[in-house]
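Can anyone check this?
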Amino acid sequence: MLAGTVVGCAGSTTTAEPAATASCGPVTASLGGTDVDPLDPAPTPALPVTVTSADGVPTTVTDASRILPVNMYGSIAEIVFSLGLGGNVVGRDTSTTFAAAAHLPVVTPAGHDLSAEAVLDLNPSVILADDSIGPPEALKQMRDSGIPVVLVDAEQTLAGVPAHIRAVAAALGVAPAGERLVTRVEGEIAEATRGVPQGEAPRIAFLYLRGTAGVYLIGGEGAGSDAMIEAAGGVDAGTAIGLAKFRPLTSEGLINAAPDVILVMSSGLASVGGVDGLLKLPGVGQTPAGEARRIIDMDDGVLLTFGTRSGRVVQALARAVHACGATS
């Protein structure tokens, strides 16, 4: 699937059979739906519970009726809703974009920084976060005001998803439901990775683009994108040339990475003017991916989330790689 003749069509999604061509500009990796799948029946929190926050602070949660889940990736909110407690959530971060949460007020108007005023206005009974959200002073202010703040680890890997689910479930007093959800999610991830056909793996470069802010980065080892690329049967091009986390995009670096496919977030692609604008960035047009317009885009709210929909994300990305092809 990943090393055959290039197929694809401009502006296609992976739900239709693509026409045979040497370009693909872009293929959208779609989950086929925008919502989460909550446990049924929903659990009833058994409170109070005392847990140790990821920053080492013992924290007692007595009330889960007004939950505020926030982090840079939207994964914590996804877990809370999947546990069946979405009706108790009072606010969201900018990365939480699935349909069930779309009506909630945003408490991170500056991207990934909390607005203390917006949080306090919501009067949450518990805040669930990780160190990807800030500033630290805002979280301290929340704690000082008497709101229980539970931090979870911010590891962005598929292997880390079960631990995140367990940490969130424990903090909300629904540990048994957390185990039910872990079983389901682990099964979906395993099924998705088993379904990725074997063969020569394409080199895939993830580019983080915010054209309106002049931000152009390439992902490497530990960026999170590397884990998704590898799970979908690809080789992370940034990691292959020794990059770690995110690094500024340079013409020399991208040409050396020589990606067969370029992966971007959908809003990032739009921010640079689509595929035509992307090809004008340093080095993009000189790569095998750029020359053949082999571009995959995926919704910002799912690609790097590493939440309960991770199995679906891997499947969608693998389908898109197939539709976009790897070699000519």
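Reply from J.R.: I decoded it. The CA atoms of residues 255 and 287 lie 6 Å apart.
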